[in-house]
From TrEMBL:
The active site is at residues 69, 104, 280. The keyword rRNA-binding does not apply. InterPro entries: Peptidase_S8/S53_dom, Peptidase_S8/S53_dom_sf, Peptidase_S8_Asp-AS, Peptidase_S8_subtilisin-like, Peptidase_S8_subtilisin-rel. It comes from Actinomadura monticuli. Belongs to the peptidase S8 family. This is S8 family serine peptidase. Residues 1-27 form the signal peptide. The chain crosses the membrane at residues 376-397. Residues 60-328 form the Peptidase S8/S53 domain. It comes from the Bacteria. Keywords: Hydrolase, Membrane, Protease, Serine protease, Signal, Transmembrane, Transmembrane helix. PROSITE patterns: SUBTILASE, SUBTILASE_ASP.
Length: 413
């Protein structure tokens, strides 16, 4: 739930479907904050991530971050001039003439690349990568928008996230930020993520806000969220100002890193500022750091961007990793420094050539050895079995059934 600044905080609205959870709405009176209050509120969070120091190394110039969300208000003063509006992939879900709310998407965009306004950009919202460009793709509706029921129930809108990922890749995105998710994998989204990574695009997604659910509390492990839990995606959990796991944040072995997600401020449409909790803002912070890395090292492979972020975390768990916070809380300066060391890594020649797969060639015997007592044939049986296992796993993911009665539950997290 987003609440107008400086009112009492609640969780970012979690659900975009009938089966997802959401905090009850609060009845609040409009109370717009002064722009200098906003800057005073956001700077401590950025300082906790070492972002102001990182600006001496990179500010996001030359990088495009695709924000796949509920839409971005390109006229918001703290984002003006930085936003390219892509297609509205939800078009037709709401009544003709209905104005998109764009609250959640604008909030996330401002955390990633807000540049402030006023003299010297000293007022309002400043994000992690203030010189980055933003590509806004509307792929979800907010729960209280007209057409929400149509959007969640109609099969024709089932592929908006996958379509948005592919559009972002084909239109120059360096980083894709996904502050959303669902509780089961779909083939189209899995393939779209693979498409993005294969074309050198970094994908960052929210781990989800189901950490306080009854099942999670009983078993200590929340269900996986997708696209966050697909291979190659940086899945982001939320921590509080002290770096402790936020109770609502998902705990599972898909979590890669964590970032602040409690009492986070961001810009909203029509000049407002809003605050809230969730893995959504945590994801936006990490997307911003990925943009800084890509700005300093254009074209750095997604795996190396991930490695730089993971290898440089602070508040690392005692054993190096746990399911609540992953490898720890991100640090912008340390991530850029780690990226400097990785930038010279030679990626060409590693693995198979593009377009080749291990199973492309038929399995042949690799040796025939004669020994006393008869023939011993050494075949590439182990390889064949391994390939069969991988193919089976891929097939299972492609055909993974939903739980009985489970509906499409895309959520903004």
């Amino acid at each position: 739930m987003l609440t107008r600044f400086p009112m009492v905080l609640t969780r970012f609205a979690a659900a975009l479907a009938a089966t997802a959870l959401a905090a009850p709405a609060l009845a609040v009176q409009p109370a717009p904050a002064r722009a200098d209050q906003v800057r005073d509120a956001v700077m401590p969070v950025l300082e906790s991530l070492n972002v102001p120091h990182a600006w001496t190394m990179a500010r996001g110039s030359g990088v495009t971050v695709a924000v796949l969300d509920s839409g971005v208000d390109a006229d918001q003063a703290d984002l003006a001039g930085a936003v390219t509006l892509g297609p509205d992939l939800t078009r037709g879900a709401g009544p003709a003439g209905a104005r998109p709310k764009r609250l959640h998407g604008t909030n996330m965009a401002s955390i990633i690349a807000g540049h402030g306004h006023g003299p010297g950009g000293a007022l309002g919202m400043v994000g992690v990568a203030p010189e980055a460009r933003l590509l806004s793709l509307r792929v979800i509706l907010e729960r209280d928008e007209p057409g929400f029921a149509e959007f969640t129930g109609a099969e024709r809108f089932a592929g908006t996230i996958a379509e948005g990922i592919r559009y972002a890749v084909d239109h120059g995105a360096d980083v894709i930020s996904l502050s959303l998710g669902r509780s089961y994998p779909t083939p189209r989204e899995r393939e779209a993520v693979a498409y993005a990574i294969s074309r050198n695009v970094v994908v960052v997604a929210a781990a989800g806000n189901g950490g306080a659910d009854r099942t999670a509390k009983r078993g200590g492990h929340t269900r996986y969220s997708y696209p966050a839990s697909f291979p190659g995606v940086i899945s982001v959990a939320a921590v509080d100002a002290e770096g402790r796991h936020a109770g609502f944040s998902n705990r599972n072995s898909g979590v890669v890193v964590s970032a602040p997600g409690v009492q986070i401020i961001g810009a909203g449409p029509d000049g407002g500022y809003w605050i809230g909790d969730g893995t959504s803002p945590a994801t936006a912070f990490v997307s911003g750091i990925a943009a800084l890395i890509r700005s300093r090292h254009p074209g750095l492979a997604p795996a190396l961007v991930t490695q730089a972020i993971v290898a440089s975390t602070r508040n690392r768990p005692e054993r190096g990793y746990d399911r609540a916070v992953g490898f720890g809380r991100v640090d912008a300066v340390a991530a850029l420094t780690a990226a400097d060391a990785l930038a010279g890594a030679r990626m060409s020649g590693a693995g198979l050539a593009p377009g080749r797969r291990f199973a492309d060639e038929p399995v042949r015997p690799v040796a025939v050895v004669r020994r006393s007592g008869g023939l011993v044939f050494t075949y590439a049986l182990v390889c064949a079995l391994a390939l069969a296992g991988l193919a089976g796993a891929a097939g299972y993911l492609r055909a993974a059934p939903r739980d009985p009665g489970e509906s499409s539950d895309v959520v903004r997290t």
